[in-house]
Amino acid sequence: MCLSVILSPLSLNKVERLAMLLKKSKHLVVFTGAGISTSCGIPDFRGPKGIWTLQREGKALPEASLPFHRAMPSLTHMALVELERAGILKFVISQNVDGLHLRSGIPREKLAELHGNSFMETCSSCGIEYLRDFEVETIGLKETSRRCSDNKCGARLKDTVLDWEDALPKKEMNLAEKHCRMADVVLCLGTSLQITPACNLPLKSLRGGGKIVIVNLQKTPKDKKASLVIHGLVDKVILGAMDVLNMQIPPFVRIDLFQIILTEALSIDKKYVNWTLRVASVHGQKAPLPFIKSVEVSFLDSQDYKAAILDKEPFQLKRRTLQTKSFEMVLKFNFSDGCGCSSTEINIPIDFQVPADCFRLDRDAIFQKLRETAIQDSCCGQNAVIEKKTILSPNSEVTVYAIITNIVRYNKTSKSTEADSLSNGDVKRRIDRENGTETSRKRSKGRKRKSKF
């Protein structure tokens, strides 16, 4: 790709300087704000089409085109993942609550989410964190409807998103301060650097001789402290830097989980089995399953069994079968808006006279194989069983599935950054992708606490 096609000579020179700073850095820290997620369809605050800008001008806020929970990482999110894998990026500090750094693949131990995560719950008793596939229903560090799944704990969980009056979490702030002091380069991306005390964190690198680089559409109060300032779209600048470094931006593959629960009970005369099929969230049977719109149930032996469509949660089907009868069900999962394919099918053989095999496979290995297959096939819907277990009361067999629901590719073409005339709130992700249109949605303000993940 010819960078001069998408960057002016002045900007090109600055992008090359940025690339060299990244390459030579020993301890790179990235500090991100809302501008890193605008190309994901999530509005920023102070940009030309930002939430506060539109409110001040008396204009209507943009309508969400897709649910918040289906937002996909931007080109910049995935570039940071590649920089981390290459050993260049040491730590990320985020003011965003969209959870996209974690979803993109930044390790939890290398991330401080100062304002929280809309998809994270935490146990204030034992410290376990739970990353959800649905938006947690509360903000302000309030108790949610779920409890810690640790058998030794069971305490009520809390959301992690700050409200306006909440102080920044000490643990996250301490980590952020530590890494800023160690940093020889702090790269600020898509942030106006106006919200205190977070905006002062990059300045802590200066005492140790570190440099600050700012990439943002508008000027910031910290521009004079920076060694390099680039006013432009973050995706466009980062794409240029990655090109200079000759580094590829990896595709994003989203994997979602669900469980199929088959509960059975013998009739009084022991001739029949009364059974219930339920498709449920792995986060609890009462938790929402937002990426599945409906489930169509059919049977290969269609003469004996009636098909059904489960179109609202809980996705549940009850039937009665001869105990000696084996059969095979076909479940067609119809996915919600924002998923990369409309549906996929899973065949499930049923034999109530054969005891279930229980196992737990290597989740990371299965995830990696699914990702590789999805990238190779350039399509979604691939799935695999990762766990099977039995429950004695009520007598149930639980099977946990992993399924590919999105693939996003970030091609190095001039079209992928064709956004010179567009403001942050308008920018659509110019990428070759298999998952349709963009998402748009916004949160008031947030922040987070942390523990183990």
Describe the structure.
With 453 residues, the chain is α+β, with helices and mostly antiparallel strands. It has two domains: 3-250 and 410-417, Rossmann fold, CATH 3.40.50; 253-408, Immunoglobulin-like, CATH 2.60.40. The chain contains seven helices and 20 strands. The protein has a six-stranded parallel beta sheet, sandwiched between helices. α1 (9-24) packs across α6. The longest helix is centred in the first third of the chain and has 16 residues, at 9-24. GO terms for molecular function: histone deacetylase activity, NAD-dependent; metal ion binding; NAD+ binding; transcription corepressor activity. Residues 442-453 have a biased composition (Basic residues).
User: What is the number of domains?
Assistant: 2
Alpha-beta classification: alpha+beta
Helix content: 10-25%
Described by the principal axes of the CA atoms, the overall outline is elongated
What is the count of helical runs?
7
Residue-averaged pLDDT: 86
Strand content: 25-35%
Major sheet: order of its strands? Answer: 3-2-1-8-9-10
CATH class of the largest domain: Alpha Beta
Largest β sheet strand count, sense and barrel closure: 6 strands, parallel
CATH topology of the largest domain: Rossmann fold
Question: Mind telling me the C-alpha Rg?
Answer: 24 Å
Which CATH architecture of the largest domain is right?
A: 3-Layer(aba) Sandwich
Give the name of the CATH superfamily of the largest domain: TPP-binding domain
Low-confidence segments: 413-453
EC number: 2.3.1.286
Pfam families: SIR2
Biased composition (Basic and acidic residues): 426-441
InterPro entries: DHS-like_NAD/FAD-binding_dom, NAD-dep_sirtuin_deacylases, Sirtuin, Ssirtuin_cat_dom, YEAST_sf
